[in-house]
Amino acid sequence: MQAHPPMYFKNRLYYLLLAVGGLVVMAGLYAVHLMEEHGHVISGMNNQIVWGVPHVFAIFMIVAASGVLNVASIGSVFGKALYKARAPLASLLSIAMLAGGLTVLMLDLGRPDRVIVAATNTNLTSVFAWNVVLYSGMFALVVIYLWTMMERRMNPYTKPAGFAVFAWRFILTTGTGLIFAFLTARQAYGSALLPPMFIVLSFAWGLAVFHLVQTVLYVWNDKVLDTAILSRKKNLLGVFILASLYMVAMYHMTNLYFAQQKAFERFILVDGGIYPNLFWWGYVVLGNLIPLALIYWPGLGKTRSVFAASLMVVLGAFSLLYVFIIGGQAFPLNIFPGYATTSSFGDGQIAAYSPSIYEFLLGFAGLAIAFITTTVSVRVLNFMPQDKHYITD
Amino acid sequence: MSESDLVRDLGRRNFFKTSLGVAALSIAPGFLLFDIAHGKAQPVSNKVRWGMLIDTAQCKEGCNDCVTACNKENGLPSVASATSVQWIRKIELKEASTGRQVSLPMMCQHCEHPPCVDVCPTGASFKREDGIVLVDRHRCIGCRYCMMACPYKARSFVHEPVTDQNPDVPRGKGCVESCTLCVHRIDVGLQPACAESCTNKAILFGDLNDPNSEISKKIRAVTSVQVRADLGLNTGVRYQGL
Ligand code: SF4
Ligand code: SF4
Question: Which ipTM was obtained for this model?
């Protein structure tokens, strides 16, 4: 044992991790192949729940991809050295998650083989089409931004590029919110609060992901994050968590204000089975209250508790998206207000949904793509934050 | 693509079709399919707007004749399930305040301002000049956004490989579909299969733009409503007795 220096084990571990990531991607692709061959009938989705678990994964990754750039923006746009040192890593994570999320979205299409159709036939009134443009633009912009940071000659352009990314990601997350906000006929969606809610959620989710990766990166490189930096970043996370909790509360409160939404809110918050459980326990308690305690409780708030808090924020995000996307579809569409309805097509009934293994495989494949992109990049290029001994801001 | 572009496009493609014949099929298969199914050369016109008036007083609870006829005409599965394609369904309603019961068929309402068309990223969902809303099954990528956007749940996703197709009604796994108002029948002067099959004469089909058509006269004479009229979609399908 002693004959091998720790580096040797790290190398092996690195390749092992990559191999595991690769296997997860392969499994996801196999699941897609099966869904292609047999049709979506083998997934848990049906004509009532048309967007399932893959959308939960995809939207998480896309929203977090935008939010993680907040770290970069604070550095480039507002000139804070502490964040500037982290802008390259944040940009990398953004690209990685965008790639993962978009792959999942694309492979969940009924006809993924036709994505070129989506690229060549654009319906300009469609928010979905706008989003295709927004996502690809974002991808390109962040790559340019990274280049201006990593290539010394390009350094002077970092600031304008940072500004462009800053503006673009607001539009992008607004666009993601609008996908739902435009569904005016559905009780769960069609709220003008959705775009700002998604923006605030993206801050918290993006920062949580950043924290997770940063912590692992420091441990891997036998480095310790300066406690002053840690404490600033955890406070920021705390603020974002509080803000997102506020936005989610507002969204539900305004819904409760409208009489026709009351039944829906009751379903999501009280008697909808898995949905209120996931909402209260998964999102509110696990995703917000415990992380807040881990951050602010006297004596806590050290590296480990912040890591745990970040992990829980991510799990809370998945819970919230599950409730929002799937719970929102499970509640029956009110086609005939004032009437109770029944039919062979699920009218008037809570739609049933039990996600299949294939959908999870696809979702995890998206995460694995983000993971592999990140792992390989941090190894071949230097994404480790370089902090000065003093903190100027 | 805006509505008028689409129409121009259709007109142009119809010109292609008549001049190039079948060769055009490979240029713009989706747009032509509904047209070539019956070999009619003239483009559809916006002078007509096809619609239906459904008299719920005539529609009988438990009767499923229109659904059966639709399934047969369009080669749809006959057994309903959570994943089966249903272009038309019977809904039984009970008024909460009075307990009054109503039975009616529900299908694509062929909205004048269809949300499904607005949200479709590829333009696969489109509205013909005569008001019929269709999905170009060669352009649909199966994103299901239109299903989320339709206020009437009129659309189905094809979850399984398709068998027993009617050559006039091309369908395919992985795409979204909905009632075509039997466009292939209308274009040869026939009625939609559901309207024809209803022995109670609950479904009246016709041209809403022609003041002398039976449907226009009846709409003037009786009280009819559009479902979820509050959304302002100006549906082509109207209901009487709701
Ligand atoms: S009823 Fe639904 S599918 Fe039909 S045109 Fe209106 S929105 Fe589109
Ligand atoms: S499923 Fe097809 S028709 Fe519906 S919005 Fe997507 S591409 Fe358009």
Answer: 0.90
